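FW: tagging you since you asked about this chain on Friday. Here's the raw sequence from the shared folder, copied in full. Didn't touch anything.
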Amino acid sequence: MKFEAARTRMPTTVTDMLVVSSITAVREAVGEARKAASRIGFVPTMGALHDGHLSLVERARREAGFTVMSIFVNPLQFGPKEDLSRYPRPVEHDEQLARESGVDLLFRPSVEEMYPEDRNVSVIAGKLGGDWEGASRPGHFDGVLTVVAKLFNIVQPDVAVFGRKDLQQAALVRALIRDLDLPLELVVAPIVRERDGIAMSSRNRYLDSTDRTRATALSRALRNVKEKYQRGERNVAALEAAGLEILRTEPAIDIDYLAVIDGTTFERPGEADERSAAIVAARVGTTRLIDNVMLADDQD
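HL: got it, structure written out here
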């Protein structure tokens, strides 16, 4: 079983993309699009765009007649020892890629625009956000859901497209939409991978050549779990052991977790089934990477 090779760059679709930085300007532009009976698609990002992001734009354009992308490096989702100041911000390159991929409206707010000094209210992730990434990065999902709720309120899309690489985040956004009765549809798009199997991520640029080779162990470990499942193994401990066996061939990798979980509740089931996913997080050199596969899904 092989992971899908990296996507080729989508054909250039140069648009008259509008770039705005204020909430008022977003609402005005979206309001004009709605007058033309356009369905609004939304792709929220933190920038440092790559083909994974552009695949989300491609999907949004299939779902809607007017596509909004946001680029905002959200300080609320970074812990005190995480890489907020180091996070890449290639402004001009991001705008070029967004324009060429067919984005109609690019929203690039400042921190001050998104979070006025007198801000008091935040969204709390709850139990679903407490384990795995939530346990490794306390407060991370509260910050994610707070900014996503604000962006949904600002853009008011008909459909929002998220990537499946951040599987727990996608589950929490689905819960946010359900629990707060938000009138929009969520589309979770497949992971886009590099040719060596690594899930595309803005953080991959931090890997040197040695760590890049080591990082392939994450996708190889997940592939081993999935192959065991598809050959009939259902015992969760045995499936996890199959993944850890691969990861431990790279002693330089610092494993945070590798687990088989229910892809909706993120609890470990008694036995794996068609809802199960394998998730992994590990530090390769100085770079923390995450990845996942759905065990019964042939997309991977």
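FW: Residues 209-230 form the longest helix (22 residues).
HL: agreed, and Residues 207-294 form a domain with the Pantoate--beta-alanine Ligase; Chain: A,domain 2 fold (CATH 3.30.1300.10).
FW: great, closing this out.
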